[in-house]
Amino acid sequence: MAFKSILWTEDGTFSNEHNFFADLNLEQVINEITKGDQELKQLFYLPLKSSTSIAYRQKIFEDLENSKTLNSIMAFYTKIEKIDKQLQYLDKLYDYQREGVFIETVISYCNALIDLAADLSNAPLKSTGLADFRDFLKTYLESHEFTVLKINAEKIRSSISSIKFIITINGGRITVKKYNGENGYNNEIVSAFSKFGVREVNGTPEVRNNFNHIEANILKLLANIYINEFYTLKEFYKQNKNFIDQIIYKFYKEVRFYLFFIDYITPLKLGGLSFCLPQIDPNCEKVFGKEMFDFVLAKKLIKENKKIVTNDFYLDERIVVITGPNSGGKTTFARAFGQMHAFGRLGLPVPGRAASLCLCDHIFTHFEIVERVENLTGKFEDDLVRIRQIIDKSTEKSVLIINEMLSSTSIYDAKVIGKQILEIIKGKGAICVYVTFIDDLAKIKGVLSMVAQVDPNDPSIRTYKIVVQEASSKAYTDVLARKYGLSKEMVLRRLKA
Questions:
Q1: CA nearest 54: which of 104, 124, 148, 127?
Q2: Are residues 345 and 371 located together in one domain of the fold?
Q3: Based on CB atoms within 10 Å of each CB, which residue in 96, 116, 140, 337 is the most buried?
Q4: What is the pLDDT of residue 189?
Q5: Distance CA 209, CA 101 (A)
Q6: Are 336 and 400 in a shared domain?
Q7: pTM
Q8: Is the pLDDT of residue 284 over 80?
Q9: Average model confidence (pLDDT) for the chain?
Q10: Do the bridges between strand 354-358 and strand 458-468 make them parallel or antiparallel, or are there none, so unpaired?
Q11: Residue 281 in contact with residue 287, Cβ under 8 Å?
Q12: Are 248 and 333 members of one domain?
């Protein structure tokens, strides 16, 4: 099968909708992954439309779990990246310096492809994408086009490298002539011209920035003496400016998606956290995750050498209501749930030891926003308008994450309205994670109740574990009241005393 892409099949993507990125802290994560590369960043806004497309990328990630395969492709990427940057810099070089650097760049390109082909030839590739590219690369290296490019580049470099000349300096005058066996400062000259504009860095040419006009003029003088050699050099440059094969360049650009993500998660894995390639359920019926965590918080805690608490979930119901004490990890859990689905539908590994996720058509979030003075509607009305827009757009394959909604109104109103919202979402059939301070919302029929845990011996200590449990803030407040001597019995005893 002919190679087309390591990113795309023909199944297409969902709409480029990413209003939820800010609420889930995904902008921060993606900026760190892509290292400011705007072209690469756009790929994270294009969720895949089918489980087949997702599996296509997942298979490539499986191949890259082989360290030899990963290191080979990483080495190739690094070489081509330097070559790409070098080519962009050529116009700033002097005549003949430019052509000399170009020759070295072409040879480095040829060697990079030969090295990669050799490494991949015995690699245990299972993905269609990488296997097809390996086949293409083998065919390309055997092509007349590549063979002629490599032979001519090496021949011209050999011809230029064999040039011997004498420089005579008399005051401010420099003369150049052919070398005919005269005694001279050969070693010194070789040393001086070894910095003729190119040096090797990991097999890739790198321009010396302090090449000056005197050296440039010496090259011109040599070109007048060795006319055929320098003419051939010039012509090779003119005829081969676009020497990089388009498919090779496409692979180089696309493979960043995999390499940059692997680079981002490696410190987290070294810190003891797990990543997995999730099962993707197009019907959104089987949704679970083991040892899930939030990207941003995990990155922060890893740097601080602090423990990271992971959580599990298994959706027996399509709606999860999370209650428990403030600062207990409820919002972090909700964000992590959303992050898993966002990255899962991109075909990326997700945080956790194992997971099965919904192939959702949309991810909607409703997090608290700062109330603006210029906004003529109040916060309560704004909450209702936003949730109505979300519900109207959602389907049975949507994921909704609602965090501490209706906190600006009375508990009674929040309870009544919250129940109505959850009933509507339940009727839609969407998957929903609803974080709230109202226990009664977790007691609605058909809702899964999860509770943020505290240390049973000291309820002021949060464990950041979220478990399936009946909601009951009273138990938490009773323990807390007893700890500080404020239970009803203790207060009455003091009053009587």
A1: 127
A2: yes
A3: 337
A4: 55
A5: 12
A6: yes
A7: 0.88
A8: yes
A9: 90
A10: unpaired
A11: yes
A12: no
